[in-house]
Amino acid sequence: MTDGGDAAEPTGALKQTKADTKPIPAQTDEDGSDAMYAEERQEALVAEARRAGRISVAQAADVHGVTPETIRRDLAALDSRGLLRRVHGGAVPTESLRLVELGVAERSGSRAGEKARIARAALAHVPSGPGSTMLLDAGTTTAGLAAILPADPELTIITGSMPIATVASQRCPGPVQFVGGRVRGLTQTTVGAEAVAVVDALRVDVAFVGTNGLTAGHGCSTPDAEEAAVKRAIVSSSRRVVVLADSSKVGVEYLRSFAPLADIDVLITDADVDPAFRSACVTSGIEVVLA
Predict the structure, then answer these.
(1) Which residue segments constitute the domains of the chain, with CATH numbers given?
(2) Where would I find the HTH deoR-type domain in this sequence (predicted)?
């Protein structure tokens, strides 16, 4: 009979019919069930990284319904093809991760108008009054701030930057203290264990910090490990951290992160900053000033 014939079909045949009509979910990577979706998922990962500037393994695994191990293999494959670059905890677009650092002379003429406006806006955050202290990090924008500081005899200025120390000591009547250490020729600032120890022992009112790159996931970053160590000490030794960074730094990541967004109190940038990044900063409690 027809009913009897249907009932006699092998169980395996019924399972195969269901498999033919229903996609296999990509939930694990041990049994290879996600292989047929790997190319599509990897294309999505590249698009997400380019849109957001960074993707994390944990978030991508949750979004795509696969294990973190699967995402790590995806990112490794994309890295080998030059489409993404692996970083700690995730990946960034290849074009956004930079390892080459320009010297002071090369950077000083770049985006000069934006840097000048940012420096002027930073004046509103310079401390004043008896015993006030500020730390000026190395950088062309922070150097621009040093050149227009008020002549306040009660303000103590601390810096490891040779150009900034020269400008500040000529302009400002108050004490200018230089952070000792080994001078890094490319950026003309002190680095090394001595510089870190000096900064670690400080407690200043405000630090004005420069950065080579700035993203929501990687925070403030710079190529050099020793310079990152000094910058990290500057951030931790300051009651208030003001980052001076024009919009060309946003969305760019360098090798060494020295401060997450959570460590920043104020970001002074220009009006071309990415709106999504600005929103991420506001959500993190950062005061964003557009100069």
Answers:
(1) 11-98 (1.10.10.10), 104-290 (3.40.50.1360)
(2) 38-93
